[in-house]
Amino acid sequence: MIVLNVTYKCKAGQRDAFLKKIREEGIDAASRAEAGNRKYDYYFPADGSEELFLLEKWADAAAVEAHKGQAHFARLGELKSAYVEETVIEKYET
Question: By the number of CB atoms within 10 A of the CB, which of 2, 9, 13, 77 ranks highest?
Answer without folding.
Answer: 2
